[in-house]
Every structure is written in C-alpha cells, then in structure tokens.
Design a protein that fits this description.
about 130 residues, two-stranded antiparallel ribbon, Thiol Ester Dehydrase, Chain A, 7 strands, alpha+beta, 2 helices, five-stranded antiparallel β-sheet
Length: about 130
C-alpha cells in the first residue's frame, strides 16, 4: 500500500437547487461535492472515473456534519488519498464553507469491472496517485 497526499482543492458555490426549505444544503449534496472533487482530481491526472471497462463506486462512506452549508456559500473541498491498494482507495475529506469546517469524513472506493466485480486498479492509476507523494 502507498500513503498519499491530497488532490488540489476543489471550489464551488452552494447552489439554490441543493438546498431544502430552510435554505440549508441537504446532507446528501455534501457527499456529491466530495464526489465532484474526486472526479476533478482524476481529470487533472488525465484519467476517467468511469471508463468502458471499470469504475470506482463507493463501498463505505462516513461523514460528520459540523456546520450548516447554505445557499451561496463559497465551498472548498479538500480530498486526500490515505491508502491505495490493488483494488481500493481510501480517502479522507473536509468541506469548508467560508472559514468554517462544515463537514469531514472518509470513504472507500473500489475498482470494479463494468460487470460489478472488484478488479485490480490499472497500473497507470496507481503510478499517477503514487506520484502525488
């Protein structure tokens, strides 16, 4: 296994469509923002998250919601790779709303074939992730 550093910060603004009747971003959208950060990081590395041969679904997610995120908040998502195995990637994340830590957590993704079976991650993905050290 390889211990990693983080992807570049991912920035976005909380949209009105992501809020509930109180103007607070629905908790599931926080995880959507984390997924967007993951996809942006892979694009920076020159890779797809979903190809015609494999993908990286989440198999475990945990999140602590610390402060509400509201419509219009400037958000920063910091996604860090904690471990890389042959088939899985373990991540940690933080979501900041302005200067406040709004959420933090962890997730595990697994490289799977289009048929849904765990498979070895392509070597070029492992090399690119290892180069982030």
């Amino acid at each position: 296994m390889v211990v990693m550093r983080s992807f570049p910060e991912y920035r976005r603004v909380a949209s009105f469509a992501d809020t509930d009747m109180a103007g607070v971003v629905h908790f599931t959208n926080i995880l959507k923002y984390v997924e967007e950060a993951e996809h942006a990081g892979f694009r920076i590395l020159g890779f797809e998250v979903l190809s015609s041969e494999f993908g990286f679904p989440r198999v475990k997610v945990g999140c602590d919601y610390l402060k509400p995120v509201r419509f219009g908040d400037d958000l920063v998502v910091q996604l860090s790779v904690v471990e890389v195995g042959e088939r899985k990637v373990s991540w940690e994340f933080e979501v900041l709303a302005g200067e406040h830590l709004a959420a933090k957590g962890q997730m595990v993704t697994v490289c799977v074939s289009r048929a849904g079976k765990a498979q070895k991650m392509p070597a070029e993905y492992m090399r690119a992730l290892a180069a982030m050290i």
